[in-house]
# Entry
Amino acid sequence: MAEQPETHPDDSDIPLMQRLLDKPFLLLAVSILIMVVFYTAWGLYEILSLKPDPLP
Amino acid sequence: MTAAAMPSAFRTCPRTGLKVNATAEALIKANAVAATVALLVGGIAAILVLLTRWQAVHLLPADWFYRILTIHGMSMLIFFIIFFEMAILYFASAVILNSRVATPRVGWAAFWLMVLGALMVEATMWTGHADVLFTSYVPLQATSWFYLGVILFAVGALVVVCIFFGTLVVAKRERTYQGSVPLVTFGAIAAAIIAVITLGHGAAIYIPTYLWSLGIMKVDPEIYRMVWWGLGHASQQINVAAMVSVWYLLGALSVGAVVLNEKVSRGAFALYILFISMASAHHLLVDPGLGPAWKVWNTSYFMYMAVLASMVHGFTVTAGLEVGQRARGLTKGMFEWLRKAPWGDPGFAAMIFSIVVFGFVGGITGVTFGTEQINIIAHNTLRIPGHFHATVVSGTALAFMGLTYYVIPLIFRRRIAFYPLAKIQPWLFAIGMLIFSLMMTFAGTFGVPRRHWDITFSGAPFDVQFNPAVNLVMGLMALGGLLAAVGGGIYILVTVWSVFFGERLPADAYTGHGLPPGIVTPPKPIPPGEHSKKATGTLVLVFVFLAAFVAYYFINWKLLSVVWRIG
Amino acid sequence: MHTGLESPPRVWWTPIHGAERIWVSIAFAWCLVLFAMMPLWHLKGEQNPSGIRHTVEPTRYYQRVQEFINQYKVGEEAGIPIVAPPPGSDVYLLAQMWRWSPILKLQKGVQYTLHMSSLDVNHGFNLNPVNINFQVVPGYDYALRVVPTEAGDFRIVCDEFCGIGHHTMVGKLLVVDSTGAPIAPGGAP
# Structure
């Protein structure tokens, strides 16, 4: 691919999605959030909200 | 301290032009060697377990079977694979980015902490104080030293993951590279992020379990299972991300495979990052503690977006090979690019087999019985290890083996010893593991249980008759496994010999014997100008894959529909 | 064109074309099919692991199982009681190191609420040769509404490692059809 001329002192022309994917710590944070919310916290909630068995 | 050991010392790689930091190199070597030692222990355990489940041989007595099975699981799934991944993290950060390691001394401390943890765990297992299997489900209890060893290993690994991120920061700040990191490094970032989730869950479960083993607190068995699998399955997803990263790396080194579209490949890694760990829920689909909504949502990795990612990588890696080969003149027919690829390059062959077996056998079976309801006819049968020997062994481990054939010359700077053996090693291992995984899956479809010493059930109050095909299938499984063990043994022989006794390479030119083609005759540069992105061969292959997927998937719904009604 | 080892172009978030676009679209559609199948099966399918789920004290569950056995016992085999509970009722299965009890004698085509729990460690319920599998966890009662669709002399194989006797842990489950076949050993109808 041809070299882009170095006339962009800022990165404003770089698409937002590219800039987001270039941020490993942001990705890390979102990843942890999604896992903890959907899997761990919800899972814990499911288990802890089970009621005791109404055995006759 | 010699010049070579100074953290700031660099050399330039004659093959890639990368500036290789001396400490990074030393850390890669140390972790790779530790991984290989663990592989040897796990491999010996594999042969012993295999020769026991093959009822005609039934080698080990019951207590040693369960013990060696524990050793096999821990040595392979934790120690071998994680040590190897530590090496990959150092490579993907410091080496690919021409950078120094962020905190080299901490890197060494972490390495030795991991070694200590591993030795502690191995010692407790071999002396019979941890007969709890890889999952160590509470209330089965091992000695406290077992849990402590795992914790120390995990802490060391987490430190290395932090050093990886730190090195990314250092490299960016010191401008050792331009623009975005290369794709292989981005894949390693995906692996590292998943590793944080994995190790976080590991700490969350092993610290309380350690305290429980000391009598200090209680641990609920169902909570244990849920949190543990946040470590147990998520660690396999580190392996997936690392494996795909290695596919791109081996493609680049062996045939100069191109990246068709960075957005697509990175987008797929991003889907892994966000959603793949949720499917730890696979293991809890027929558990009493969780409800259907949680099970369906999590097992689907967020509406199968992480499966989309795998299907995308299966295409982009293969299409990258095809487009790169076509651009270099291999344009005849639909598959000349594949027929005339360097099948004699053990790195290339390993990569292809890894893609095919991981996708066709591992991926399809896993997604199918990771379906909430289909899991009813699969849970705890041999279908489960049949699946994961196709993913983590024929997929990840095989890819790592292929990579080793480049690491030996490029990092250890030795010629590969017994090179003719090295060339056939991936073939033996792949074919062996393919047979092993398929046969194991068939046996599981007949209901043969996993983790079971004796399916003749001698000593049980009632007889159990499996379908007569089971004996044949288990025998074939054993033969496949033995073939794979030969492949594994050759791998260890070749790597250990090369690393310690192999002929050293001169610093500036890599020519001559004992080197894969991708090093001796690097892929020709692609002529400048526009090139077609035609990938019809790959399209055909992925449609064959999709057809197999659809067929296997709906066959399983049919198999489920004829069992008892359950709700 | 560059490899995965090399730096990408400065701007790489660019449109997708050709074969890639086709494949991503088709794979995405397939993923939605995969996802839709699960809720669909909950609505239309007859095998779901939903169950009625509670926590339970192992000793309390054990007590309940003993009461159940005393109420419906019709025989014994290999030291394990055989029970014939009424159709449509709650039936109880206990897993412990290393036996399944009681031997349930059920009727074909009838729904039962099958409760499962463990006295001690994790066990695995595998109904052989049907190949239905569930996790049996101490402290939890997993009650599944089941309808045996065939008569037969079934086995319950433990498929979760539960200690040194794990491979001897085999139970029995009988399903009789309207003629009373199959007959359990010992001649009990």
Notes: The longest strand of chain C covers residues 140-147. Confidence is low (pLDDT under 50) at residues 184-189 of chain C. The radius of gyration of chain C is 24 Å.
